[in-house]
Amino acid sequence: MLAYFASPFQHRPACSGPVEWKDFAALEADIALAKEATASSGAADVFFTSPSPGQIARYLKNQHYPSEEAYLYALADVMAREYRAIVDAGLVLQLDCPDLALSRHMVFAHLSLEEFRKVIATHVEALNHAVRDIPPERMRMHICWASTQGPHHKDVPLKDIVDIVLKGRPQALSFPGANPRHGHEWKVWKDVKLPDGKIIIPGVIDSTSNFVEHPELVADRIVQYARVVGAQNVIAGVDCGFGTFAGRLQVDSKIVWMKLASLAEGARLASKQLW
Predict the structure, then answer these.
(1) How far is the C-alpha of 204 from the C-alpha of 267, rounded, in Å?
(2) For residue 169, what are the contacts with CB-CB under 8 A and spacing of at least 6?
(3) Can you tell me the distance from the alpha carbon of 84 to that of 105, in angstroms, rounded to the nearest whole number?
(4) What is the CATH topology of the domain spanning 45-274?
(5) What is the pLDDT of residues 66-124, one digit of tens each?
(6) Higher-confidence residue: 182 or 1?
(7) What whole-number distance in Å separates Cα of residue 71 and Cα of residue 68?
């Protein structure tokens, strides 16, 4: 846990002093629990999520450091220990980076697009600084526009940020691709060259809807991406987490498992077409 102190001027805690670790043992306990819970799953890899420096800064405002950039790098230096611990435990590190997309209308709506792009470029640089010693293939990063049932009409288009996001060191990039606002954006990859060694993890099932996608629809979505960037560069994923906030239930747990089963079957169907 990070040492943050409550501010009388905000509902959320804020950074009012140097950022440092207060209870690293809590993280170690979480990692041990995750490994125990997945030990018998037979999974080739298990990913463990952690917020990016920019995402932490989005929620916990700076009241101490001389600049936002200084704050980001302070967070990066502290969080580097967590990122390394996750990877050293044999888990894949997923860096959650909604700050690279969601913050466009949540925090930086007053900026021009170019100004916003400069902000997130700094966020990516700070992230890369934090994971500079971790092999890219042991990491993935997730961007999103919030796992909510809102209209999403102010979401920044993927095409406006994808070049910056792809500069992140993690090998794999996870992003929403199934919900009605972003389902068309597979076409972005027709004009964007995927850097060598990069993999994309597009969402092919929606994490906010109780509809269970048909496996053939899931397969169609996977094939769309695969035919643009290459089947070897695509992993089928989910738009976002089903349990992003404790206590918020958008999709019934029984339906979650049905949707994941449809994801698996759709991936099998797609693989038959592509290989």
Answers:
(1) 10
(2) 127, 128, 131, 132, 134, 136, 139
(3) 32
(4) TIM Barrel (3.20.20)
(5) 999 999 999 999 999 999 999 999 999 999 999 999 999 999 999 999 999 999 999 99
(6) 182
(7) 5
